[in-house]
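Researcher: Please predict.
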Amino acid sequence: MKLYYSPPSPFARKVIVAAYELGLIDRIALEKVAVTPVSQNDVVAAANPLAKVPTLVLDDGQAVFDSRLIVDYLDTLTDRSLAPREGPARWRALTELAQADGLLDAALLARYETMMRPQPLRWDEWTQGQLGKVRRALDAFEGSERRAGDDLGIADIGVACGLGYLDFRFPGEAWRDGRPRLTAFYETISQRPSWVATDPNG
């Protein structure tokens, strides 16, 4: 299998962390690519018409894309699943994952607005609206139980990727302030080999 990814992408990081945690990383060739919302990468576009990362290309040439779908596929390759496979626990985990992905979507939109849009066209109310979503999601996660050991699940990985992205792109957000449970969770998960290996600063 081949994974097109960009180190700064928190969605790609989620997939690679999942691959490490599932013991599948050695079966995946990681191919670093550059993509932006305003410039097409022809190599990625040949596999994924949306030209987005992460994109996983299977051994038979089929492409699987969207980070949630890729992780769901990886879950089928091992006995250890990062998401419960059925019942109410599955829907709770996937709903939490959707919330974590929503946090990332909002953070990325805020990042694009402030870094990619020409200065005269930037809309501060838009940026603040997106960051408001980030803060509400963080507050919700502060009130939930998180796992950071060998029993961590895909929602835990998704939340951690959100926190890591905020550290990477929005250090001024100071997300740890008033959120001791999330802070402790992140300090623990940050020690895992899968997390260290996927550090965008590394």
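Model: Residues 55 and 65 are 5 Å apart (CA to CA).
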